[in-house]
Structure formats: structure tokens, C-alpha cells
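User: Sequence in, structure out. Go.
Assistant: Echoing your sequence, followed by the C-alpha cells.
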Amino acid sequence: MSTALFDSEALADEAVVLRHDKKYAEAEVKLKSALEKRISVVGENDRSVAELLKQLGETSQLAGNNEAAQTYFQKAVTVLEATYYAGHALIAPILEHLTDILLAQGKYAEAEPICQRAMEISDKTLSGEHRQTLGLTVKMAAIQMKLAKFAEAEKLLTKSSKNVDSPLGPLEEYQYMLAQIQDELGKPEEADKLYKAAIAALEQRKSYGTLVECLDKYAAFLKKQSRQKEVPEIEQKAAKFKAFCLNWKHNPDIFSSTLLRA
């Protein structure tokens, strides 16, 4: 290994420690130096260059500098496209980062095609059962719901649910989202069944954070359907689990049934 590459590796390692200590500005300086040294040896179109750009993007994102993060991520995608091809597996996680930046800014229309591309790449390279693909599917459906594309979101979740072979997740998240979609599509009976199924499964899995959200949505749904008598029980249940959430430590992974495929 050349001296420049050795120095690049050392600087990147130092950046990891700094990032862990939340010293993002210092970490960025180290990563920029590591990137410069690596490019001097391997050139710009190399997988290791894309990885450093990705780390720079993640560091900027953690520091709250989304504009810089977006630039780094876009450069990383360009490098990987030139090094490999437009549908390479390494591109999907970076596209997801870009999606998250746009979602944080409420730019759902701009996020949709980027998330769509990430989901398609992940599906083709890792399969529809992989946790990354399932996570992107949930994110994509959420974007479509924000854009009032309820029929498209329903189709996407229904198709993807066939890849879930366990009741441990993300089926209940799908049920929760589909319940909201059915409500928007004017199908209250279907929405009611899905809400109840999601609530039961989320409670069994002890996913209390999502459970509280689901209960709150269900209470609002019941009010909308003029089923006021049922609301107090649901609101009391939501309050109970909100209290649990204060001290509850539980794996937040919604894809526990797919851990072995990661």
C-alpha cells in the first residue's frame, strides 16, 4: 500500500472516532483529507472514493448540514455509476440518504423518484424480501400517501406484503398504513379491520411507539365514523402505552423477521 493510501485509511479511521464523539466538523476535515489523498492515487472513479464521499455525506447530515450532505451523496452516486453501472447495489443506500434529506425538507414530490429508484435497485440486487427493500417500500408508500396517491400506495404495499413470511414485521406496519389508505379511499369497514389487526400485532410485538401512533389514528378514525362510545377505551389504551414508552427499551427494528436476510 502506498504512503498516501495508508494515510487515507488512517485519516478515515480517525474520522470514525471523531464522528462517534459528535465532533462532526473535525471529522469532515479528516475525511476531506483522506479523500484528497486517495484520489491522488486511485483517481476519482473508484469504489473507495465513493465510500469516502458517502461518509462525508453522512457526517454532514449528522451535523445538520443537509445542503453539503446532498452534494456529497450526489457525487458518490456519480462515481459509482461511472465505476460500475446505474443499477449497482451500492447506489441504493446513498439514494435513500438523498430521499431522507428531501423528506426532512417536506419535498415529497422530489423524493418520490429517488426513493423509487432506490427501491427498484434494492429489489433487483437484494430481492424483495431483504430488509433494505422492505424499508424502502414502507418509505415509498409513506411518500405516496403524502402526495395523496393512495391507490398507488395500496398497490405497492399489497404486492410487497407477499414477501413477508412472518407475523413479526413489517406486516403490522403495512396493516397500519393500509388502514389509513382504506380510510382515505372511503372504505371504512376495511380500514377498521386493518386498524384492529395492526393494533393487536403491534401490542404483541411490544412495538409501543408505533402502537401509540396507531391507536391515536384509530381514535381519530372512530370519531370520524361517529363511533364516539368506542373512543375513550382507545384513548385510555394509548395513554397507557405512552407511559410505557417513557422507560421502555426495545429493539425498534420493524423488520425482525428479516434479520437473517440482512
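User: And one key feature?
Assistant: The CA atoms of residues 175 and 194 lie 5 Å apart.
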